[in-house]
Amino acid sequence: MVSKSKSKDDQVNLTVLDGPTSLIYADRVLNVSIGPINSKLMLGLEVGPNNTFSPSTTLVMPTIALIDALASMQKTMHENSELKAVMLKGLDAVNEQYNKL
Fold this sequence. Notes:
By secondary structure, this protein is α+β, with helices and mostly antiparallel strands.
């Protein structure tokens, strides 16, 4: 659980509180919708051979929180060379698919 407060200089302070959490597993992000206020990620589970996926969970969050998550992922990637190699390999595959369009 997260407690959100705002200081008088308009800086947002987040405090992580102990409490119940949920673990969500997904094999793939099936769809991403990004808006100026909120973004939506549809997550899916692999249900059979031939890369067949079924939607399992939809996550809606503030777009700024999604951007913060991406920045955090980038920081983590740069601090871990093994993770960086895996991520760069995945990005190369995405670029190849994009270039085929």
